[in-house]
Amino acid sequence: MNVQPLGLRQALKQIAEDVEHQFERLLPLPPDPRRRLYEAMRHATQGGKRLRPLLVCAVSDLFHVDRSCALRVGIAVESIHVYSLIHDDLPCMDDDDVRRGRPTVHKAFDEATAVLAGDALHDFAFEILADPETHPDPFVRIQLVAELARASGPMGMAGGQMMDIAAEETSFDLATVTRLQQLKTGALIGFSVEAGAIMGHVPVEGRTRLKAYARDLGLAFQIADDLLDVEGDSALVGKALQKDSDSGKATFVSLLGVERARQQARMLVDQAVGHLSAFGAEADVLRDLARYAIERDH
Protein backbone atom coordinates (compact mmCIF):
# COMPACT_ATOMS: atom_id res chain seq x y z
CA MET A 1 0.00 0.00 0.00
CA ASN A 2 1.38 3.41 -0.96
CA VAL A 3 1.87 5.94 1.84
CA GLN A 4 1.03 9.52 0.90
CA PRO A 5 3.12 12.38 2.32
CA LEU A 6 1.48 13.76 5.46
CA GLY A 7 0.81 17.15 3.87
CA LEU A 8 -1.05 15.61 0.95
CA ARG A 9 -2.92 13.17 3.19
CA GLN A 10 -4.16 16.05 5.30
CA ALA A 11 -5.03 18.11 2.23
CA LEU A 12 -7.03 15.23 0.67
CA LYS A 13 -8.88 14.62 3.94
CA GLN A 14 -9.69 18.31 4.38
CA ILE A 15 -10.87 18.85 0.82
CA ALA A 16 -13.08 15.75 1.00
CA GLU A 17 -14.74 17.07 4.16
CA ASP A 18 -15.09 20.60 2.77
CA VAL A 19 -16.57 19.48 -0.55
CA GLU A 20 -19.03 17.11 1.13
CA HIS A 21 -20.17 19.88 3.49
CA GLN A 22 -20.56 22.40 0.67
CA PHE A 23 -22.65 20.09 -1.50
CA GLU A 24 -24.95 19.39 1.46
CA ARG A 25 -25.25 23.11 2.18
CA LEU A 26 -25.73 24.21 -1.44
CA LEU A 27 -28.11 21.40 -2.41
CA PRO A 28 -30.76 21.36 0.34
CA LEU A 29 -33.62 18.92 -0.23
CA PRO A 30 -36.82 20.82 -1.13
CA PRO A 31 -40.21 19.74 0.29
CA ASP A 32 -41.80 19.21 -3.14
CA PRO A 33 -41.57 16.80 -6.11
CA ARG A 34 -38.10 18.12 -7.03
CA ARG A 35 -36.71 16.32 -3.97
CA ARG A 36 -35.89 13.18 -5.98
CA LEU A 37 -33.77 15.25 -8.39
CA TYR A 38 -31.82 16.79 -5.53
CA GLU A 39 -31.36 13.38 -3.93
CA ALA A 40 -29.94 12.07 -7.21
CA MET A 41 -27.58 15.05 -7.49
CA ARG A 42 -26.34 14.53 -3.93
CA HIS A 43 -25.99 10.78 -4.51
CA ALA A 44 -23.75 11.47 -7.49
CA THR A 45 -21.56 13.99 -5.65
CA GLN A 46 -20.66 11.67 -2.77
CA GLY A 47 -17.19 10.13 -2.68
CA GLY A 48 -14.39 10.41 -5.20
CA LYS A 49 -10.82 11.69 -4.99
CA ARG A 50 -11.73 15.41 -5.16
CA LEU A 51 -8.62 15.97 -7.26
CA ARG A 52 -10.03 18.98 -9.10
CA PRO A 53 -11.21 20.96 -6.04
CA LEU A 54 -7.88 20.24 -4.37
CA LEU A 55 -6.01 21.60 -7.39
CA VAL A 56 -8.14 24.76 -7.34
CA CYS A 57 -7.48 25.30 -3.63
CA ALA A 58 -3.76 24.41 -3.78
CA VAL A 59 -3.04 26.84 -6.63
CA SER A 60 -5.23 29.50 -4.98
CA ASP A 61 -3.03 29.21 -1.89
CA LEU A 62 -0.01 30.18 -4.00
CA PHE A 63 -1.65 33.52 -4.78
CA HIS A 64 -3.29 34.12 -1.38
CA VAL A 65 -6.85 33.67 -2.64
CA ASP A 66 -9.46 33.33 0.09
CA ARG A 67 -10.17 29.62 0.63
CA SER A 68 -13.94 30.12 0.69
CA CYS A 69 -13.75 31.57 -2.84
CA ALA A 70 -11.44 28.79 -4.02
CA LEU A 71 -13.71 26.14 -2.54
CA ARG A 72 -16.75 27.49 -4.40
CA VAL A 73 -14.83 27.26 -7.68
CA GLY A 74 -13.77 23.75 -6.67
CA ILE A 75 -17.44 22.85 -6.16
CA ALA A 76 -18.22 24.22 -9.63
CA VAL A 77 -15.60 22.16 -11.42
CA GLU A 78 -16.47 19.07 -9.35
CA SER A 79 -20.11 19.54 -10.40
CA ILE A 80 -19.06 19.49 -14.05
CA HIS A 81 -16.92 16.41 -13.44
CA VAL A 82 -19.76 14.60 -11.65
CA TYR A 83 -22.32 15.49 -14.32
CA SER A 84 -20.00 13.96 -16.91
CA LEU A 85 -19.74 10.76 -14.85
CA ILE A 86 -23.52 10.49 -14.54
CA HIS A 87 -23.91 10.77 -18.30
CA ASP A 88 -20.92 8.50 -19.02
CA ASP A 89 -22.54 5.76 -16.92
CA LEU A 90 -25.88 5.87 -18.78
CA PRO A 91 -26.92 2.85 -20.90
CA CYS A 92 -26.51 4.94 -24.08
CA MET A 93 -22.86 5.63 -23.18
CA ASP A 94 -20.72 3.25 -21.08
CA ASP A 95 -23.67 1.46 -19.40
CA ASP A 96 -22.04 1.09 -15.98
CA ASP A 97 -23.78 -0.15 -12.83
CA VAL A 98 -21.18 0.94 -10.25
CA ARG A 99 -19.37 4.24 -9.69
CA ARG A 100 -17.19 5.05 -6.67
CA GLY A 101 -18.23 1.73 -5.15
CA ARG A 102 -21.93 2.64 -5.21
CA PRO A 103 -24.80 2.15 -7.68
CA THR A 104 -24.66 4.61 -10.56
CA VAL A 105 -27.39 7.25 -10.59
CA HIS A 106 -29.54 5.59 -13.23
CA LYS A 107 -29.42 2.37 -11.16
CA ALA A 108 -30.06 4.02 -7.79
CA PHE A 109 -32.88 6.14 -9.27
CA ASP A 110 -33.85 5.81 -12.94
CA GLU A 111 -32.52 6.83 -16.33
CA ALA A 112 -34.64 9.98 -16.73
CA THR A 113 -33.70 11.24 -13.27
CA ALA A 114 -30.03 10.56 -14.03
CA VAL A 115 -30.19 12.67 -17.19
CA LEU A 116 -31.84 15.52 -15.27
CA ALA A 117 -29.35 15.23 -12.39
CA GLY A 118 -26.44 15.54 -14.81
CA ASP A 119 -28.05 18.50 -16.58
CA ALA A 120 -28.81 20.21 -13.28
CA LEU A 121 -25.25 19.80 -11.98
CA HIS A 122 -23.94 21.31 -15.20
CA ASP A 123 -26.15 24.37 -14.71
CA PHE A 124 -25.38 24.50 -10.98
CA ALA A 125 -21.66 24.87 -11.75
CA PHE A 126 -22.15 28.08 -13.72
CA GLU A 127 -24.67 29.44 -11.21
CA ILE A 128 -21.95 29.16 -8.57
CA LEU A 129 -19.29 30.83 -10.71
CA ALA A 130 -21.58 33.75 -11.58
CA ASP A 131 -22.43 34.44 -7.92
CA PRO A 132 -20.61 37.46 -6.37
CA GLU A 133 -19.94 35.27 -3.33
CA THR A 134 -17.47 33.32 -5.46
CA HIS A 135 -15.32 36.38 -6.21
CA PRO A 136 -15.96 40.11 -5.77
CA ASP A 137 -14.46 40.99 -9.17
CA PRO A 138 -17.03 40.52 -11.99
CA PHE A 139 -14.22 40.31 -14.57
CA VAL A 140 -12.73 37.37 -12.67
CA ARG A 141 -16.13 35.68 -12.49
CA ILE A 142 -16.80 35.99 -16.22
CA GLN A 143 -13.32 34.69 -17.00
CA LEU A 144 -13.96 31.67 -14.78
CA VAL A 145 -17.30 31.08 -16.53
CA ALA A 146 -15.70 31.33 -19.99
CA GLU A 147 -12.78 29.05 -19.12
CA LEU A 148 -14.95 26.37 -17.52
CA ALA A 149 -17.37 26.49 -20.48
CA ARG A 150 -14.43 26.02 -22.85
CA ALA A 151 -12.93 23.20 -20.75
CA SER A 152 -16.21 21.29 -20.52
CA GLY A 153 -17.58 21.84 -24.04
CA PRO A 154 -16.69 20.61 -27.54
CA MET A 155 -13.19 22.12 -27.28
CA GLY A 156 -12.67 20.23 -24.03
CA MET A 157 -14.29 17.39 -22.12
CA ALA A 158 -17.34 16.85 -24.34
CA GLY A 159 -15.15 16.84 -27.43
CA GLY A 160 -12.89 14.26 -25.83
CA GLN A 161 -15.91 12.14 -24.96
CA MET A 162 -17.03 12.25 -28.61
CA MET A 163 -13.57 11.06 -29.64
CA ASP A 164 -13.86 8.31 -27.02
CA ILE A 165 -17.12 7.12 -28.57
CA ALA A 166 -15.51 7.16 -32.02
CA ALA A 167 -12.63 5.08 -30.63
CA GLU A 168 -14.95 2.07 -30.46
CA GLU A 169 -15.16 2.04 -34.26
CA THR A 170 -11.75 3.49 -35.25
CA SER A 171 -8.15 2.51 -34.52
CA PHE A 172 -6.45 5.51 -32.92
CA ASP A 173 -2.70 6.05 -32.91
CA LEU A 174 -0.77 7.39 -29.91
CA ALA A 175 -1.06 11.04 -30.96
CA THR A 176 -4.84 10.75 -31.31
CA VAL A 177 -5.24 8.96 -27.97
CA THR A 178 -3.11 11.66 -26.36
CA ARG A 179 -5.32 14.37 -27.88
CA LEU A 180 -8.46 12.51 -26.77
CA GLN A 181 -7.26 12.36 -23.16
CA GLN A 182 -6.02 15.97 -23.17
CA LEU A 183 -9.61 16.93 -23.92
CA LYS A 184 -11.61 14.34 -22.01
CA THR A 185 -9.55 14.35 -18.79
CA GLY A 186 -6.94 17.07 -19.14
CA ALA A 187 -9.18 20.05 -19.93
CA LEU A 188 -10.92 20.08 -16.53
CA ILE A 189 -7.61 19.50 -14.75
CA GLY A 190 -6.20 22.44 -16.70
CA PHE A 191 -9.11 24.64 -15.64
CA SER A 192 -8.69 23.56 -12.01
CA VAL A 193 -5.06 24.65 -12.00
CA GLU A 194 -5.62 27.87 -13.93
CA ALA A 195 -8.65 28.93 -11.88
CA GLY A 196 -6.53 29.67 -8.80
CA ALA A 197 -4.27 31.93 -10.85
CA ILE A 198 -7.27 33.68 -12.42
CA MET A 199 -8.67 34.43 -8.97
CA GLY A 200 -5.23 35.68 -7.96
CA HIS A 201 -5.24 38.14 -10.92
CA VAL A 202 -2.26 36.44 -12.57
CA PRO A 203 -2.10 37.49 -16.25
CA VAL A 204 -2.21 34.88 -18.99
CA GLU A 205 1.53 35.12 -19.66
CA GLY A 206 2.19 34.40 -15.98
CA ARG A 207 0.31 31.08 -16.08
CA THR A 208 2.49 29.29 -18.63
CA ARG A 209 4.31 27.00 -16.21
CA LEU A 210 1.15 26.20 -14.28
CA LYS A 211 -0.58 25.24 -17.53
CA ALA A 212 2.37 23.01 -18.41
CA TYR A 213 2.13 21.41 -14.95
CA ALA A 214 -1.58 20.73 -15.54
CA ARG A 215 -0.95 19.28 -19.02
CA ASP A 216 1.65 16.79 -17.77
CA LEU A 217 -0.34 15.95 -14.63
CA GLY A 218 -3.47 15.25 -16.68
CA LEU A 219 -1.69 12.85 -19.01
CA ALA A 220 0.11 11.10 -16.14
CA PHE A 221 -3.19 10.74 -14.31
CA GLN A 222 -4.82 9.16 -17.37
CA ILE A 223 -1.96 6.74 -17.94
CA ALA A 224 -2.28 5.71 -14.30
CA ASP A 225 -6.02 5.15 -14.89
CA ASP A 226 -5.22 2.98 -17.91
CA LEU A 227 -2.76 0.97 -15.80
CA LEU A 228 -5.35 0.55 -13.05
CA ASP A 229 -7.84 -0.63 -15.67
CA VAL A 230 -5.42 -3.46 -16.52
CA GLU A 231 -3.83 -4.21 -13.14
CA GLY A 232 -6.17 -2.70 -10.53
CA ASP A 233 -8.61 -4.21 -8.05
CA SER A 234 -12.19 -3.30 -8.99
CA ALA A 235 -13.16 -3.28 -5.30
CA LEU A 236 -10.57 -0.56 -4.62
CA VAL A 237 -11.14 1.34 -7.86
CA GLY A 238 -14.88 1.32 -7.27
CA LYS A 239 -15.98 0.55 -10.83
CA ALA A 240 -15.82 -2.16 -13.49
CA LEU A 241 -12.36 -2.61 -15.04
CA GLN A 242 -10.99 -3.62 -18.46
CA LYS A 243 -13.98 -2.19 -20.33
CA ASP A 244 -11.72 -0.32 -22.78
CA SER A 245 -9.81 -3.44 -23.73
CA ASP A 246 -13.04 -5.44 -24.01
CA SER A 247 -14.47 -2.84 -26.40
CA GLY A 248 -11.26 -2.68 -28.44
CA LYS A 249 -10.43 0.94 -27.63
CA ALA A 250 -6.82 2.02 -27.94
CA THR A 251 -5.28 3.23 -24.65
CA PHE A 252 -1.82 4.30 -23.54
CA VAL A 253 -1.28 0.79 -22.17
CA SER A 254 -2.50 -1.03 -25.28
CA LEU A 255 -0.29 1.15 -27.49
CA LEU A 256 2.82 1.36 -25.29
CA GLY A 257 2.64 -1.76 -23.15
CA VAL A 258 2.56 -1.75 -19.35
CA GLU A 259 6.23 -0.95 -18.67
CA ARG A 260 6.60 1.79 -21.28
CA ALA A 261 3.33 3.34 -20.13
CA ARG A 262 4.54 3.33 -16.52
CA GLN A 263 7.85 4.91 -17.58
CA GLN A 264 5.99 7.57 -19.56
CA ALA A 265 3.82 8.39 -16.55
CA ARG A 266 6.89 8.79 -14.33
CA MET A 267 8.55 11.05 -16.88
CA LEU A 268 5.42 13.21 -17.07
CA VAL A 269 5.30 13.50 -13.28
CA ASP A 270 8.95 14.56 -13.18
CA GLN A 271 8.19 17.18 -15.82
CA ALA A 272 5.12 18.38 -13.92
CA VAL A 273 7.13 18.80 -10.73
CA GLY A 274 9.86 20.60 -12.69
CA HIS A 275 7.36 23.20 -13.90
CA LEU A 276 6.88 24.25 -10.26
CA SER A 277 10.55 25.15 -9.73
CA ALA A 278 9.72 28.86 -9.36
CA PHE A 279 7.72 28.08 -6.21
CA GLY A 280 9.01 27.04 -2.80
CA ALA A 281 7.48 24.82 -0.13
CA GLU A 282 4.10 26.48 -0.67
CA ALA A 283 3.73 24.28 -3.79
CA ASP A 284 4.59 20.99 -2.06
CA VAL A 285 0.97 19.78 -2.13
CA LEU A 286 0.97 20.21 -5.92
CA ARG A 287 4.26 18.31 -6.17
CA ASP A 288 2.99 15.52 -3.92
CA LEU A 289 -0.27 15.38 -5.85
CA ALA A 290 1.62 14.79 -9.09
CA ARG A 291 3.49 11.87 -7.53
CA TYR A 292 0.29 10.50 -5.99
CA ALA A 293 -1.34 10.52 -9.44
CA ILE A 294 0.72 7.52 -10.53
CA GLU A 295 1.14 5.80 -7.14
CA ARG A 296 -2.54 5.51 -6.20
CA ASP A 297 -4.50 2.25 -6.16
CA HIS A 298 -7.88 3.79 -7.02
Along the chain, the helix and strand elements come as HHHHEEHHHHHHHHHHHH
Helix content: 55-70%
Mean pLDDT figure = 92
Number of domain units: 1
Distance between the termini: 11 Å
**Hey, roughly how much beta strand do the residues contain?**
under 5%
CATH architecture field: Orthogonal Bundle
Provide the spatial order of strands within the biggest beta sheet.
Answer: 1-2
Counting helices, strands and paired strands, the structural category is mainly alpha
Rg of Cα set: 18 Å
Described by strand count, sense and barrel closure, the largest sheet is:
2 strands, antiparallel
Q: Which oligomeric form is depicted? A: single chain
Assigned CATH superfamily:
Farnesyl Diphosphate Synthase
Total number of strands:
2
CATH topology: Farnesyl Diphosphate Synthase
Q: What's the CATH class, please? A: Mainly Alpha
Tell me the layout of helices and strands.
Layout: H1 6-26, H2 35-45, H3 51-62, H4 67-89, E1 98-99, E2 102-103, H5 105-108, H6 111-130, H7 138-152, H8 157-166, H9 174-184, H10 186-199, H11 208-231, H12 234-237, H13 243-247, H14 252-256, H15 258-274, H16 284-295
